Prior knowledge:
The protein is mainly alpha-helical and 189 residues long. It contains nine helices and two strands. Pfam families: MST.
Amino acid sequence: xxxxxxxxxxxxxxxxxxxxxxxxxxxxxxxxxxxxxxxxxxxxxxxxxxxxxxxxxxxxxxxxxxxxxxxxxxxxxxxxxxxxxxxxxxxxxxxxxxxxxxxxxxxxxxxxxxxxxxxxxxxxxxxxxxxxxxxxxxxxxxxxxxxxxxxxxxxxxxxxxxxxxxxxxxxxxxxxxxxxxxxxxxxxx
Length: 189
């Protein structure tokens, strides 16, 4: 019986992976090659996270599954804060403004203050903020080329790595958001 289940599951996985094979990473239009591929990945992750959370109600947006957890709203703010931090550093050559710092500082590290600060706003608020920051990133990155992308900004850190970090940060927290959503469903059992 286990062998039959394995064959069925293997067939389903293979079929699903063949369907996925139609997706390709290609440079986004209007960007240099390497930046365009990074944009493609960043936008794919943002689209997937948005699809995962866009229909959350207020209670779900603010849901904490324990005293040390972060809400989906706070996690989205964390993604925004990370991207904005690197946007202003690498594309604008500055630090956060006082206004940006007031809005995003707690989101950068999450924790108790972020749990308190980032609640009571609809998921659309967070997604709109992310859209605004992403549009600035896309605009700024469109003006750069792959030579800039490979330029070191500090010893052992180049612009490519910084924007890779923005992208992989989204991937990491996409899993965390899925966990929070899973815990929401468990509370009703």
